Amino acid sequence: MFTGYMGYYILIGAIALVSSLVSGQLKRKFAHYSKVKLRNGMTGAEIAEKMLADNGIRDVKVISVKGQLTDHYNPVDKTVNLSEVVYNQDNAAAAAVAAHEVGHAVQHATAYQWLTMRSKLVPVVQVTSNMSQWVIIGGIALMASNALGGKGFYVAIAGLIMMGAATLFSFITLPVEYDASNRALAWLKAKNMVTPEEYKGSEDALKWAARTYLVAAIGALASLLYWAVQILGSRD
C-alpha cells in the first residue's frame, strides 16, 4: 500500500493515463465513423427530431452547440444539444450521438428511475465535488497536529462523505448512459434508420463513449478508497 500523498499522485496519474487512452480511442472511433455516410442522408438533427417524434415527445427542442463531443440533453430547459458536426452531418457517428442524446430525453419523459436519482444528486455534487479533497486533506492535517481536540478525524470523514456522494453520482451515471445507448441502438435498428454496416459503426462509437464513464466511475471509487485508508490509518 502506498503511503503519504505520493501514493495519491501515482493513483491519479494512472487514472488520468487510462482516461486519456480511452478518450483518445473514442475520438479516433468518432473520426473513423464520421466517414461512414448514412444511406438515408439524414443529419444528426433530423435523426434526433424523428426519434423524438416516434416517441411522442413534442416539447423538446433540438439545438446546435459549439465544441467537439459537447453533445448533451438538458432536462431543465428540455433541449437536445448537439455539437455542430453532429447536428449538421449525415454519418454513423452523428446518428449514434443524436439518438443517444434523445435516449436521455426519452428517459426524462418516462421518469426513468436512474436518471431521476442522478438529477437529485446534481445540486449536492455541484457543491461538494470540488471541495471534498481539500476538506479531507485539512482533516488529516488537523489529525496529525492533534488540533481541535481530535476533531480533525470528523472533518476528514465529512470530506469523505462529500467524495462519496460524487462517487455515487459516477456510478448512477453508468446505467443512465448505457440505457440511453441501448434505447438509441434499438430505435435505429427497429426503424431501419441505418444499414447493418452503419449500425455496427454507431454501436462501436457508443460503446467507447460509455467506457469513458466507466473509467471515471472506477477512478472516483479508487480515490474514495485511497482517502478512506489514509484517514483510518492516520487515526491509528
Give the number of DSSP strands: 3
Q: SSE order in H/E notation?
A: HHEEEHHHHHH
Uncertain runs are: none
Mean pLDDT: 91
How far the N terminus sits from the C terminus, by CA atoms, comes to: 16 Å
Strand-pairing-aware structural class: mainly alpha
Largest sheet: 3 strands, mixed
Strand order of the largest sheet: 1-3-2
How is this structure best described in words?
- The chain is mainly α and 236 residues long.
- It is 73% helix and 6% strand.
- It has 8 helices and 3 strands, in the order H-H-E-E-E-H-H-H-H-H-H.
- The protein has helices at 4-33, 44-54, 84-88, 92-109, 113-128, 132-145, 152-190, 196-235, and strands spanning 61-65, 72-74, 79-83.
- Strand 2 (72-74) and strand 3 form a beta hairpin.
- Helix 2 (44-54) packs parallel to helix 4, helix 6 (132-145) runs parallel beside helix 8 and helix 7 (152-190) packs antiparallel against helix 8 (196-235).
- The longest helix is centred in the C-terminal third of the chain and has 40 residues, at 196-235.
- The two termini are 16 Å apart.
